[in-house]
Write a structure and sequence with these properties.
Elements lengths: L10 H24 L4 H5 L9 H19 L7 H5 L5 H21 L2 H4 L2 E5 L5 E5 H23 L19 H9 L10
Antiparallel strand pairs: 1-2
Helix pairs in contact: 1-5, 1-7, 3-5, 3-7
């Protein structure tokens, strides 16, 4: 976790805190919907880059683990990929929630100074590459949104309606979102300034 004494928490740090809470909520909504599918439907081949909900959502978790390890300076690097075992939906939901909590913990402690530092990523044959923390967080959230969108589209081809995922940031957004956030012990954006 980032050291809160490492500097000032400004607008960028506040934004990443909001993104981390939003990310956890959106993952919970999507995975909860997927949990209503049979195992066969969850693993069924569909049209997408990773051609199943199972493959896409496990990919998201695996990549989260890789980048969070780098942000926490855990030192696992590409070992994360070698160690990862794909999970069924019953295992994936709590594993993603635990990973999302790690990301929230990191972002809750981040300051503008910390966001401007670098961490090392293990890029295999490309070597070790220093990346800015703020850029890595932006990439991680973009990666999640990208693949959640693919999973959302695949879910639309099942008997389970895909959940609303974009009602988080604005006060006008759904009051049901606020109820769910409190139930999950997540904060709405107005509490994360």
């Amino acid at each position: 976790m980032a050291d809160a004494g490492y500097g000032r928490r400004g607008a960028l740090a506040a934004h990443f805190r909001k993104m981390a809470h939003n990310n956890a909520w959106a993952n919970w909504r999507l995975l909860s919907a997927c949990a209503q599918l049979s195992d066969a439907d969850f693993k069924a081949e569909r049209t997408s880059f990773f051609p199943s909900l199972h493959g896409t959502l496990n990919h998201n978790l695996m990549v989260d683990l890789y980048y969070i390890d780098a942000l926490e300076r855990g030192g696992l690097g590409r070992q994360v990929f070698a160690r990862f075992q794909p999970l069924d939906i019953a295992q994936l939901l709590p594993a993603q929630a635990a990973t999302d909590r790690r990301l929230i913990g990191f972002c809750d402690g981040a300051t503008d100074d910390l966001l401007a530092t670098t961490v090392t990523t293990d890029r295999g044959e490309s070597g070790r590459i220093e990346e800015r923390v703020d850029d890595m967080l932006a990439h991680l959230f973009q990666h999640q949104i990208h693949h959640r969108g693919q999973a959302h589209a695949m879910l639309a081809g099942t008997s389970i309606a895909p959940p609303q995922l974009d009602e988080y940031f604005l006060l006008h957004d759904s009051q049901q979102t606020r109820v769910e956030l409190r139930r999950l012990d997540l904060a709405p954006p107005e509490d994360l300034l």
